[in-house]
Specification:
The protein is built from 19 helices and no strands. It starts with a helix and ends in an 11-residue tail after the last helix.
Length: about 425
């Protein structure tokens, strides 16, 4: 009798254990579904914000010209935008760490609304310069990266971050086309009205769909060095402390310098396309659309597959090696068709480098500081846009288009040798 009772008790415990396991499994699946939905919403917000930003890029030169701003003044306007984005990136990241991703995305969208509102009433040059001021907190892409970083496992991160390239590609293609159509058919200020309303809609999307707290404050095994919960949001010392974590400074140096020469080339591309390739404005637009489609394919399809089969250390070396080979191709190209061929490895290396370095750097710091790290990473492009026109102009004028290719080749060969010989500590993750 006691044996039967023991068996019944054992059976009941096993059944209860099975029910608990099933409940936990369902809870886990429910959490994964919810996280997936939040990430999709982050992709949507980033896509819309980039679309609105690209809409105004085609309008600003005409608006500046209509207000009497010459080419030098327009250069100052663009430099102002670049400096504000450069300074604002790390501060925005600190804000995301301290107040959460929902607050950060709302801040970015609200800044976008203020940006377009000021543009829509820019009837003189001082107002046009003033409209650049909200750009200091316009960082929808790093905000979306922060959401993804918080809600993905380290092995999933590179793939999920890579898919943001789809958002960027859609934003460039749709935004550029839509801005041109709206300004031509309805007036030069109409794209700014659309951007204003669109960013207000983005605020509502973030408030409804982005959870208040994505994860605990700190789930990283190294928390004693966390900077996000201490010090001022504007503390440069606290921001720069992240560079002291193992491997961070080395990977960040590779991130900055590997893509710098091609970044200078792309900044000068509007002039190069006219003078060197002899393209009309419409043909240049087609070429930019081609690059946008390439980026969407590479970041949406290729990077994810590679991260499942290769370690991030291997992919980092591969991107630098491809950059070096592409530099030689740039140095030897003579026609726009040559450039169309070179663009394939160029986009691959550019996209791979950005995605892999972002993934590596967010794993190298405490989870409560990933926003700040992403903000620092987001400052790389504004830095290039700030110094690029001066350095790129000198290179092009003194040495021609081939100088960008040779510089790309030399810099990346040096970085490739450095990556082969150095023992940079990386948290290796590879999906199975």
């Amino acid at each position: 009798m006691s044996t039967m009772n023991a068996k019944a008790s054992s059976g009941g415990e096993e059944e209860a254990s099975g029910m608990r396991s099933e409940t936990l499994g369902e809870s886990s699946r429910s959490g994964e579904v919810k996280s997936g939905q939040v990430i999709l919403v982050a992709y949507l917000i980033a896509t819309l914000e980039l679309t609105f930003l690209c809409m105004q890029m085609g309008v600003v030169p005409y608006l500046a010209k209509s207000l009497g701003l010459d080419s030098v003044g327009f250069g100052y306007l663009q430099t102002t935008f670049g400096i504000l984005q450069l300074v604002g990136g790390p501060i925005f990241g600190r804000f995301a760490d301290q107040f959460g991703t929902r607050a950060a995305l709302i801040l970015s969208c609200a800044s976008g609304s203020a940006f377009f509102l000021l543009m829509s009433i820019s009837t003189n040059i001082p107002l046009l310069f003033l409209s650049r001021l909200p750009a200091v907190f316009m960082h929808g892409l790093p905000g979306a990266q922060k959401v993804i970083t918080d809600l993905t496992t380290p092995s999933q991160r590179a793939d999920a971050l890579g898919k943001l390239g789809l958002c960027f590609g859609i934003g460039v293609i749709v935004g550029s086309a839509l801005g041109g159509v709206l300004s031509t058919k309805f007036g030069i200020f109409v794209p700014t009205y659309v951007g204003l309303v669109g960013n207000l809609i983005n605020i509502m999307i973030a408030m409804v769909w982005i959870p208040l707290q994505d994860k605990p404050k700190s789930d990283h095994h190294v928390t004693e060095h966390s900077t996000s919960q201490s010090g001022s949001m504007f503390s440069i010392r606290e921001i720069l402390r992240l560079m002291k974590f193992p491997g961070v400074m080395e990977v960040f140096i590779v991130k900055v310098f590997s893509g710098l020469p091609v970044g200078l080339f792309l900044i000068m591309f509007s002039i190069i396309s006219m003078d060197f390739f002899g393209l009309e404005a419409v043909e240049s637009g087609y070429l930019m659309s081609y690059l946008g489609v390439l980026q969407m394919v590479v970041q949406g399809l290729v990077i994810g597959k590679l991260t499942k089969h290769c370690t991030e250390r291997t992919l980092l070396r591969l991107s630098v090696f491809v950059f070096a080979g592409m530099g030689l191709g740039m140095a030897l190209m003579r026609t726009v068709w040559h450039y169309c061929i070179i663009a394939v490895p160029l986009v691959f290396a550019f996209s791979m480098l950005g995605t892999i370095t972002d993934s590596i750097l967010t794993k190298a710091v405490p989870s409560s500081d990933t926003g700040t790290m992403l903000g620092i990473c987001a400052s790389v492009q504004p830095l290039t846009r700030t110094v690029g026109p001066t350095i790129g102009g000198v290179l092009y004028k003194q040495f021609g288009v081939s100088s960008f290719g040779y510089l790309q080749l030399i810099v990346n060969i040096g970085l490739f040798v450095y990556l082969l010989k150095s023992k940079i500590p990386l948290k290796e993750m590879k999906s199975q």
